[in-house]
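Support request, please re-run this one:
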Amino acid sequence: MSRPSPVVMSMGDPAGIGPEIILKAWDSWRRREDTRPVLALGHLSAFQPMAEQLGLPAPQPVSTPEATASVVDGALPVLDVGVSLDAPLRPGVPDPSHAAVTKAAIETGVRLCLAGQAGALITAPIAKSVMYEAGFNFPGHTEFLAELCAGHCVAGPRGPAMMLSGGGLRVVLVTIHEPLARAIERITPERVETKVRLTDAALRRDFGIAAPRLALAGLNPHAGEDGTLGDEEARILNPLAARLRADGLDVSDAMPPDTMFHAEARAGYDAAICLYHDQGLIPVKTLDFHGGVNITLGLPIVRTSPDHGTAFNIAGKGIARPDSLLAALDQAVQIAECRA
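Re-run finished. Output below.
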C-alpha cells in the first residue's frame, strides 16, 4: 500500500503560538498508530527555539513532501517556503516584515494540495492587522484561500463558506468578519441560499451524511414573533426555506436563536445556518472552548484550522494548548478520507 500524502500545516504568524502548537500537536499525533504523515510549512528558525524550550527533538528540514518519510527520531519535518524572516523573531512581538513568510506558507500549502502532493491543509492563526499593515488585502484566511483556489474544479457549489465545529455542533456563517449593522444589511435571499446549498453539499461530500438536516437561525428575538419583533424572517428567511424545501433540501424555517442550541434541539439537525459571526461562534465556543475547529467549505482542497487566534500574550511561554489544532488535524484527515 502506498504511503498516504501528508497533511501540511502552515505556521501562521511566527511571533504567535503557531509554531508552539504545531510542535505540540505533532508530538502527540506521531505517538498514535496508523496516522498520516504531517509536514510543517514555514521557516525552520521559527520552530527551532520552541522545540528546544519544550524538550522536543530538533525540527528537520525536508525538500519535498515525500521526504517526510525520511525524518527520524520524532522530529517535526519542516519544508522551507523560500522566504526569509526579514527581522529578528521575538515571540509575542508581531512584525509586519514577517507577513511575507506567513503568506508564502499558506500559498505553498494550497499549491501542494492542488497538485495532489498533500492531502489537506491546516492553517495556524494569523494576525489580520499585521497582514493588513504589510499589504494583505483579504478579510482573512477564508477569502484568501478562495482566491488561491479560483479556477480549479470544485465538486458541488463553490465556496467559500466558514463552518465551525465543536462540542457536537456544526454552524455555518452567512456573514463573517464585519460590523453587525453591515452584516444585517447583507442578509439577502441569495446570500443565505448560497450558504445553505454549500452546507448541504459539504455534509454529503465531506461528512458522509446522505440526507443532511439543516436548521436556519432567525435574526430577531423569537424569530421575529410573527413580525412584531422584526420582519426579516417573514420577508426573507421563511420564503427562502420553503423554496429550498421544494427543491428537496431539508431546511427549517427560521428558528428562535435562543432555543436552538441546547442538547435536545441539536439532536434534530446536522448543521445550523447562522446569520452573523457571534450567533454561531458563541454556542460552539461555549460547548467546546478549547477544541473548536474552523472548516472551509466549497473548496477543491481540504482546509481546517484551530478556532482561536495568535495569542501573542502567551507566545513563547510554552503554555499554549494544542487541543484545537489536534481537533483540526483529526477533522482534516476525516474529511480527506471521506472525499477519497
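The chain has a mean pLDDT of 94. The radius of gyration is 20 Å.
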